């Protein structure tokens, strides 16, 4: 075992060192998602079902925007490593502009979709609950683009702790406001699900303000401040950001599309199934966010070795990252197996919904390993800046295979909610295999 740890031990330590602040920040997001679902679910089942639908729709743009911002990390990281402050500041300015514009662009069809909510087969009695929450979350998307860009900037220059602090504090604020506004505590009006929307919008605005204040006030950012405020972004940088970021965004967006489809199919199966899918999605985020944090840490390190032309170290980081992510999937599965029923009861007191959730825990566990694999190798491809093939492989796995298989399993075959989670397993494993084969081929090319 000693030679193994001599070879990989440093990589494990580096991934954990970079990844733990990212992970803690993402866990703050998960805790907020759990708190939202618990508070809304205990308010009433209609609110939970409505939140399930709206959150799944908004998650599509959130994940697209998150994926788009990931393209900044290797670009800024490489400039940071070469001490090219002027180019770095221009890249960050361009990243903020590009990310805000990207979120705004995707928000337009959602705004149009609001006009047709009554035409897509949702239960009629849920529409008055859905509409105001939908509008508030749509508005709250706008700060996300700038938050994502500034987060990738701070992460890429190895200041990963700031995002941890801001995300934890912002999500804590979200939970506090939820408690006040959903239930009408401490003199606040009882707003139900609408109150959860107000809380989310407020927290996101505050988090953006915190990033700006941090960057403008910290001494460690003195070298960038004037360039960020008064420098210029070249058109070539905007093109590079777009070319690097778009395939990653599309990959994550297509992955999110299968979860959005799941929410729509669940709506056709009834309010209880919608609520159960919301609970299962929230529980499953525990795994997803952990895997993505560790995968992002590995990709940062791999981008450094790519700049040095060290394919041996790239392989080693890829191995270490995948092992850590798989270990995390095992841990998440243990939690789901032993505590899945108890977690469901935290989110809702409707025993029919709890029973549906409990019936799917086995399939929830099964798809963790496909999710872990596709996340690991998608991040590996990002780390070596080989992003164009990601989009094509994702289209095959999620759109060509995932959504049609889900429909067939749910309805013609009649598996209902089980068909949703079996289809998730199939599509995620397919994506993982395709990303792995693409990564292996590219590494061989780089080693020549």
If you had to describe this structure to a student in words, what would you say it looks like?
This protein has helices at residues 2-43, 45-70, 72-81, 85-114, 127-140, 142-156, 161-183, 193-217, 222-230, 235-269, 271-308, 311-347, 351-359, 361-383, 388-410, 417-447. The protein is mainly α and 448 residues long. The mean pLDDT is 84.
How are the SSEs ordered, and which strands pair?
Blueprint: H1 2-43, H2 45-70, H3 72-81, H4 85-114, H5 127-140, H6 142-156, H7 161-183, H8 193-217, H9 222-230, H10 235-269, H11 271-308, H12 311-347, H13 351-359, H14 361-383, H15 388-410, H16 417-447
Helix pairs in contact: 1-2, 1-7, 1-11, 1-12, 2-4, 2-5, 2-6, 2-10, 2-11, 3-4, 3-6, 3-11, 4-5, 4-6, 4-9, 4-10, 5-8, 6-8, 7-8, 10-11, 10-15, 10-16, 11-12, 11-13, 11-14, 12-13, 12-14, 14-16, 15-16
Labels describing this entry:
single chain, 448 residues
Distance between the termini: 30 Å
**What is the share of helical residues?**
over 70%
Please provide the ordered H/E string of secondary-structure elements. Answer: HHHHHHHHHHHHHHHH
Radius of gyration: 21 Å
Number of strands: 0
Overall mean pLDDT stands at 84
Largest sheet: none
| Outline | globular
Q: In percent, how much strand structure appears in the residues?
A: under 5%
Could you say which structural class the secondary elements and strand pairing correspond to? Answer: mainly alpha
Number of helices: 16
Q: Which stretches of 5+ consecutive residues score pLDDT under 50? A: none
């Amino acid at each position: 075992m000693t030679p193994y740890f001599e070879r990989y031990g440093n990589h494990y330590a580096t991934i954990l060192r970079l990844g733990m602040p990212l992970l803690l920040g993402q866990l703050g997001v998960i805790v907020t998602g759990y708190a939202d679902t618990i508070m809304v679910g205990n308010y009433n089942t209609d609110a939970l079902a409505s939140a399930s639908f709206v959150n799944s729709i908004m998650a599509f743009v959130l994940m697209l925007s998150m994926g788009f911002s990931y393209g900044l990390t290797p670009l800024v990281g490489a400039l940071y490593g070469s001490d090219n402050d002027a180019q770095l500041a221009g890249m960050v300015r361009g990243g903020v502009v590009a990310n805000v514009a990207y979120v705004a662009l995707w928000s337009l069809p959602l705004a149009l979709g609001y006009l047709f909510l009554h035409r897509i087969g949702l239960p009629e009695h849920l529409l008055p609950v859905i509409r105001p929450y939908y509008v508030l979350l749509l508005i709250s998307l706008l700060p996300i683009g700038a938050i994502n860009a500034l987060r990738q900037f701070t992460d890429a220059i190895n200041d990963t702790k700031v995002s941890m602090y801001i995300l934890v504090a912002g999500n804590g604020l979200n939970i506090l406001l939820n408690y006040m506004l959903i239930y009408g505590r401490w003199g606040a009006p009882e707003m139900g699900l609408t109150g959860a929307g107000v809380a989310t919008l407020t927290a996101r605005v505050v988090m953006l303000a915190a990033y700006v204040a941090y960057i403008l006030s910290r001494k460690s950012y003195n070298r960038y401040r004037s360039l960020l405020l008064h420098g210029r972004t070249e058109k070539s940088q905007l093109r590079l950001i777009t070319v690097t970021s778009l395939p990653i965004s599309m990959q994550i967006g297509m992955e999110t599309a299968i979860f959005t489809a799941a929410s729509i199919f669940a709506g056709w199966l009834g309010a209880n199934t919608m609520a159960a899918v919301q609970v299962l999605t929230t529980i499953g985020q525990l795994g997803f966010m952990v895997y993505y944090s560790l995968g992002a840490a590995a990709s940062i390190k791999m981008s450094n070795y790519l700049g040095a032309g060290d394919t041996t170290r790239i392989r080693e980081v890829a191995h270490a990252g995948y092992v850590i992510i798989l270990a995390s999937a095992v841990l998440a599965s243990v939690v789901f197996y032993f505590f899945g029923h108890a977690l469901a009861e935290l989110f809702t007191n409707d025993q029919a919904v709890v029973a549906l959730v409990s019936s799917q825990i086995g399939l929830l566990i099964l798809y963790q390993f496909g999710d872990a694999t596709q996340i690991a190798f998608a991040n590996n491809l990002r780390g070596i800046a080989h992003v164009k093939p990601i989009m094509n492989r994702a289209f095959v796995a999620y759109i060509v295979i995932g959504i049609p298989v889900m429909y067939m399993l749910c309805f013609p075959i009649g598996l209902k909610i089980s068909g949703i989670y079996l289809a998730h397993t199939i599509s995620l494993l397919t994506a993982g295999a395709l990303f792995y084969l693409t990564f292996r081929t590219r590494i061989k090319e780089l080693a020549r």
